[in-house]
Amino acid sequence: MVAGLGVAVLIVAIIALRNPHTDGVHAGQPTTTPSSSHGSTSSHPSPTTSSSRPTTSVSNSPSTPATDTKLPLVVLNNTTVQQLAQQAKARFEAGGWTVTSVGNLTNDIVSTCAYYDPAMPGSRAAVLTLQLQYPTIKRVEPKFAGLPAGPIVVVLTPDYSTN
Questions:
Q1: Torsion sign over Cα 60, 34, 89, 29
Q2: Lowest mean pLDDT segment, chosen from 30-34, 70-74, 76-80, 145-149
């Protein structure tokens, strides 16, 4: 029940972040798009309210992300598991994301985290969508100095699972 409530709160947060009344395209935003098709969201009037505001149905399956804004990822392996970043790259790309580079990182990161660039419009919403699609990403945080350039950097730690 608590997990369901957490998912519901996350979905509401994503919906709120997706509707800032902008067109979603900003100067300086990368134009790289994934090669697979984006998932769809459906809007329909809510039968339980008298408001005319539509509700959005969001799927958390790996092939159907909750948003059409998929920014490119950098994936870093912060474990001793060989080729983990490459495995994660294949998994993210299968889910429709573009991975621009992979590498290793040696840092004191406590759990698998997706870091977003707060200066990049839409990066926080995109990283929340990524986390919803891949719950093995335990945390979402703003980027810190020392991470490579890119709107989203995923750092894999020993708690990362490819299941």
A1: negative
A2: 30-34
Tally of helices (H runs) and strands (E runs) in the chain? 3, 7
pLDDT exceeds 80 at position 71: yes
Residues 6+ apart with CB under 8 A from 19: none
Q: Quote the CA–CA distance of 89 and 101 in Å, as a whole number.
A: 8
- Beta strands 139-142 and 113-116, pairing class: parallel
Could you report the per-residue pLDDT of 105-161, keeping only the tens digit for each?
Answer: 999 999 999 999 999 999 999 999 999 999 999 999 999 999 999 999 999 999 998
Q: Do 98 and 72 form a contact (C-beta atoms < 8 A)?
A: yes
Distance CA(83)–CA(58), nearest Å, equals 32
